[in-house]
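Example record

The entry below shows one chain as it appears in the dataset: sequence first, then structure tokens.
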Amino acid sequence: MSNALSTAGVKVFAGVETTAGTRPTALSAYTEIADVKEVPELNPEPSTLDSTTLAETEYKTYIAGLKDLGGAISFTANFTNELKTTWDKVVDEYKTASSASKAMWFCIVHPDLTKAVYFKGSPSAMGLPAMSVDSILETNLYIVPSSAPQWEAKPTSTSS
């Protein structure tokens, strides 16, 4: 029997390609996006395509279609000065990278999993979040994915 995992210690990072078309592998190439409270599901169900022929007499048949992440995905975070500064930096780095035909990669690292999840995407600038009495100021960080999520080795640290 395996042990269930806690979400404690999960980290979210953003990094720009040094060489166009090549995902950064060093942890130093990524910026940690602090204060993230919720990571969206990156495990959408595939659509199903009806492949039923006239020869079928009782059940329809299907084949798997495409998966849809649903457009912009949203990471919930505590709105802090540090988050605002970091996210503005990420958006600026994306703009610079994009003009040089390089992609921005996002990385989600769970401390107890052997691999991390990566995807390319474009971050949207932050606006002013909703506010209400007696509550934590939270915001949504929006990213439009431009590649499928993929499990790969965690970014490597150069420190010992």
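Notes for this example: DSSP finds one helix and ten strands in the chain. Strands lie at 11-16, 30-32, 36-38, 46-50, 62-67, 73-78, 104-109, 115-123, 138-145, 150-153.
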